[in-house]
Design goal:
The chain has 2 domains: about 5-155, dinb family like domain (Four Helix Bundle (Hemerythrin (Met), subunit A), Up-down Bundle), CATH 1.20.120; about 170-265, Nonspecific Lipid-transfer Protein, Chain A (2-Layer Sandwich). Helix content is about 50%, strand content about 10%. Helix 1 (about 5-25) runs parallel beside helix 7, helix 1 packs across helix 9 and helix 7 packs across helix 9. With about 270 residues, it is an alpha+beta fold. The strands form 2 sheets. A 5-stranded mixed beta sheet has the order 5-4-3-6-7. It has a two-stranded antiparallel ribbon with strand order 1-2.
Length: about 270
């Protein structure tokens, strides 16, 4: 099945995410650019280099030929490609990298705005498998939004409640919610018949429901039946756990605690 998403809605979130990154980067000292993030081996500079590289590649720019075979934190081909861009830009001053970020995202805004609906809904390879280009851009929104918070953590600038209630955050959580059937049923090993609720609190509050019947799938409701397991946590914490940025954070569990704890243990699904 191809995921068809409203182009205007997704682009509003993606562009808002780029704007938020621009505001964070404005005026940073070179020392701040080199602040380590929660991502192994990556500082703020590396995160922005990665985003620039991805958007450049989507515009047809070939990946730099850089040897990254000596880096222990690379786990797959996606990671190796990301690291090529990070190393390629590693010697560039932060202020110059910021300008490069603005240039590549300015170009991408025009390309995406001008894209036809036919191309937007066309099937293309994405990090989640073959799906629509629109789904790919929702994944891009998720990725950029997550990296905004990696940078915020590195700089000690957590987002306010108002900043968390953004179009980009909603789309990022939509993308994450779409993967929870796989997380609950496959990674978490919830048995057939499970009805799992992931209840998010705080500014990113929402309820994600998953049933397992041969495989896990996200549903609107359980048809009047009670959940067999409930996981309750702050919404931002959920994104950090699912992104592998934190481990071992306390999560409130109800119902089948063994199943709930196993899901929490395997909540990190991000490549």
């Amino acid at each position: 099945m191809v995921t068809e998403l409203d182009k205007s809605d997704v682009l509003t979130g993606l562009f808002a995410s780029w704007d938020a990154l621009d505001r964070l980067l404005t005026g940073l000292s070179e020392e701040q650019w080199r602040s380590p993030t929660p991502l192994p081996g990556w500082d703020v500079h590396a995160v922005i280099a990665h985003i620039i590289g991805t958007e450049s590649a989507l515009s047809g720019v070939p990946t730099p030929d850089v040897d990254v075979s000596d880096l222990a934190h690379i786990r797959n081909d996606f990671g190796a490609t990301n690291e090529c861009w990070v190393r390629f830009f590693s010697g560039e001053p932060g202020a110059d990298l910021h300008q490069r970020f603005l240039a590549v995202t300015r170009d991408r805004r025009k390309r995406l705005t001008d894209m036809s609906d036919e191309d937007w809904n066309a099937v293309t390879p994405t990090p989640a498998g073959a799906d629509s280009y629109g789904r790919f851009m929702r994944i891009r929104t998720f990725d950029c939004w997550m990296h905004e918070h990696d940078i915020r953590e590195a700089l000690g600038l957590p987002a306010s409640k108002a900043k968390l209630a953004s179009p980009a955050a909603r789309l990022a959580l939509d993308e994450m919610a779409a993967s929870m059937g796989y997380v609950v049923g496959k990674l978490g090993g919830a048995p057939d018949g499970s009805r799992v609720v992931i209840q998010l609190t705080g500014p990113l509050a929402r309820v994600i429901r998953v049933v397992v019947d041969g495989r896990g799938r996200v549903v609107e409701d359980f048809g009047g039946l009670e959940p067999t397991a409930t996981l309750r946590m702050d919404g931002l914490l959920f994104t950090r756990l699912a992104g592998g940025r934190v481990v071992g954070a306390p999560v409130e569990l109800d119902g089948d605690r063994e199943v709930g704890a196993r899901i929490v243990e395997h909540l990190n699904y991000v490549i």
